[in-house]
Design brief:
Rossmann fold
Length: about 260
């Protein structure tokens, strides 16, 4: 539905590649002006901007590390200063680190929790403060994971961060509802993105995974972007505190090999 986000401004964190890039281009195609946030890859952010402009949309790039409170405050302040408002926040930036539980270091724990949970918490806080002050409604969309609910051995830090995101969204749905601000999670399963390159190159492992997915394929970033566009729109005005699982049926069919 092109144009149904016309006049809206959206921040999409981690939008220099993968799911974030796809969400940014989709929201722009639907009429939103998009703030393309990146941490380390300005060239990726510029590519996202090119894709947005090629589709007739508008975007600006801003560097911000979501694990830094100074950066998240600046990100929201800049969006308001440059674009006059900020109506939609997509908390997409995320990292994962694999380790046996007994080998997890404090450094790795901090790295994962700071981006995946603390960053979301305080960026959302900065976003909400501006909306409260302006007495405006808003939409918050967190890109979570099926692992907000499903065990993932050797990724305990990631699971802890996503489980936290699940309860944060539910609690904020109650607290922010009276302000007209909705918050929902999208929980992707196996999606074809650069982060999964190792898996895609390992055919036996990939085939074992595909056997667990009833739809028989990995998801595409566009599959996730479509749900984000819906949750950002007025069609989703009465939805809050929900998690949308997008996994081709993986969760309901999953069993350890």
């Amino acid at each position: 539905m092109p144009g149904h986000l016309s006049g809206k401004v959206a921040i999409v964190t981690g939008s220099s590649s993968g799911i974030g890039q796809s969400i940014a281009t989709r929201l722009a195609a639907d009429g939103a002006t998009v703030v393309i946030d990146y941490r380390n890859h300005p060239e990726g952010a510029e590519e996202t901007k090119k894709q947005i402009e090629a589709a007739g949309g508008k975007g600006i790039t801003l560097q911000a590390d979501v694990s830094s409170l100074v950066d998240v405050q600046r990100l929201v302040d800049e969006a308001w200063q440059q674009l006059g408002s900020c109506d939609i926040l997509v908390n997409n930036a995320g990292i994962e680190k694999s380790a046996d539980f007994w080998d997890v270091t404090e450094q790795d724990y901090d790295a994962v929790l700071d981006v995946n949970l603390k960053g979301v918490f305080f960026l959302t806080q900065a976003f909400v403060r501006h909306l409260r002050e302006a007495k405006r409604p808003g939409r918050i969309i967190n890109i979570s994971s099926v692992h907000e609910d499903m065990a993932f051995p050797h990724f305990s830090t990631y699971c802890a961060s996503k489980g936290g995101l699940r309860m944060l969204a539910r609690t904020l749905a109650v607290e922010l509802g009276p302000l007209g601000i909705t918050i929902n999670n999208i929980a992707p399963g196996a999606i074809m993105t650069p982060i999964n390159k190792k898996l895609l190159d390992d055919k036996p492992k990939l085939n074992a995974l595909l056997k667990n997915i009833p739809l028989g394929r990995m998801g595409m970033p566009e599959d996730v972007a479509a749900i984000a566009a819906f949750l950002a729109s007025d069609d989703a005005a009465y939805i809050t505190g929900s998690t949308y699982v997008i996994d081709g049926g993986l969760t309901v069919n999953y069993h350890e090999q």
